[in-house]
Specification:
By secondary structure, the chain is mainly beta. About 10% of the residues lie in helices and about 40% in strands. Strands 11, 12, 13, 14, 15 and 16 form a 6-stranded antiparallel sheet that branches. Strands 1, 2, 5 and 8 form a 4-stranded mixed sheet that branches. The protein is elongated, with a radius of gyration of 21 Å.
């Protein structure tokens, strides 16, 4: 009887107090101001949470554990998020400074024209060495550009500092080499 009582109390406490609120803040590195209109979602192995609308402030999570944050404005690959305490969990992320624009043909297929790279907005073509950082201070992207064109290898890193991909320019476009994510612990 005592064991059943402990189980009931445990289940009730998890359902009453087990919910976690995940609240990311997204900072535009070019203006150093928070941006609300960012598309993001957080998921576990079975479900996506909080993807109801663009620019949501937070997501309610059902339990502690491991999640993945998906936001292409921050990283091309999902970021591992570990929730270890029942509380509002706040994270701050820098949005990408280096933007890539891929041109489409009129039939909506990728053109043979290589992508253009911009820094901060569509009015500022990337020139010289451009380094983009994550909010933890680690490098996100590093490359050399001339009038928006990649002229040397573009190094892209995961949030943990490990190499994610190399983009290498050549005569007819780019060659991209992807590296496995391995363990992406924060």
């Amino acid at each position: 009887m005592k064991t059943i009582l402990y189980i009931v109390v445990f289940v009730l406490s998890q359902s009453l107090f087990g919910q976690v609120v995940y609240q990311p803040t997204f900072i535009d590195q070019c203006t150093n101001k928070p941006i609300k209109e960012v598309m993001w979602m957080i998921s576990d192995s079975t479900q996506i949470y909080g993807n109801e609308y663009l620019g949501m402030d937070y997501a309610k999570l059902p339990r502690l554990g491991n999640y993945e944050l998906n936001c292409t404005s921050i990283s091309d690959t999902p970021m591992k998020i570990r929730i270890a305490h029942n509380e509002t969990v706040k994270d701050t992320f820098f949005l990408k400074r280096l933007l890539t624009v891929i041109q489409l043909n009129h039939d909506k297929t990728y053109s043979d024209t290589p992508p253009k790279y911009y820094v901060c907005n569509a009015d500022s073509l990337a020139n010289g060495t451009v380094i983009d950082f994550y909010s933890n201070g680690k490098i996100r992207d590093k490359g050399i550009f001339e009038k928006g064109k990649l002229i040397d290898t573009l190094y892209t890193y995961h949030r943990n500092g490990k190499l994610s991909k190399l983009t290498i320019p050549h005569k007819k476009g780019y060659k991209t080499i992807h590296y496995p994510a391995e363990s992406l612990k924060r």
